[in-house]
Amino acid sequence: MLTNKMQNALNEQINKELWSSYLYLSMAAYFEDNNLPGFANWMRVQAQEEVSHGMKIFDYVNDRGGRVFLKPIAEVPTEWSDTRTVVEETLNHERVVTESIYDLVNLAVEEKDHATNQMLQWFIQEQVEEEASADDLLQRVEMTEGKGHALLMIDKELAGRQFVDETKE
């Protein structure tokens, strides 16, 4: 059984994961509007991943006899100055999510909730991958120095990314 403190923190994380999905959908819309469908696809996949992360926690709370309480999702940004700024914000956001997961792990340790701590280890590894992926994309975008041809090459590559629900593996 989850303590109220742990249940509340996990509910907050569900909201953060769903907010992240909205953020990435907003970024996808920005890229669609700027005729970069590959970048838009990459962001759509990110959005799907965030929903699956939220649902993993949702299911976990229910499995532990807790209760999920959904709160409104806050508004997300809709405009950015350029591609680099969007990708830079993506990396920064993933770093914030990582810190949020670390806070949950620390709380699980404090609450002596070994099962939640174990479940959260999956998220720690996932965040290593999320940060590395966003950092790689940012480095490649920075290499283009705003040159359209190079950016279009990256865009074409990103169009091939497909969603795989790794929470079910």
Structure write-up:
- The chain is an all-alpha fold and 169 residues long.
- The protein has one domain: Ferritin.
- The chain is 75% helix and 0% strand.
- It contains five helices and no strands.
- The chain has helices spanning 4-33, 37-63, 83-110, 114-144, 148-158.
- It is elongated, with a radius of gyration of 17 Å.
- The mean pLDDT is 96.
List keywords for this structure.
mainly alpha, 5 helices, 169 residues, Ferritin, 75% helix, elongated
What is this entry, summarized?
Helix content is 75%, strand content 0%. With 169 residues, the chain is mainly α.
H/I helix tally: 5
* Biggest beta sheet summary: none
Question: DSSP strand (E) fraction?
Answer: under 5%
CATH architecture field: Up-down Bundle
Contiguous uncertain segments of 5+ residues: none
Helical coverage, percent range:
over 70%
Mean pLDDT: 96
Count of discrete structural domains: 1
Task: Give the helices and strands, then pairings.
Blueprint lengths: L3 H30 L3 H27 L19 H28 L3 H31 L3 H11 L11
Helix pairs in contact: 1-2, 1-3, 2-5, 3-4, 4-5
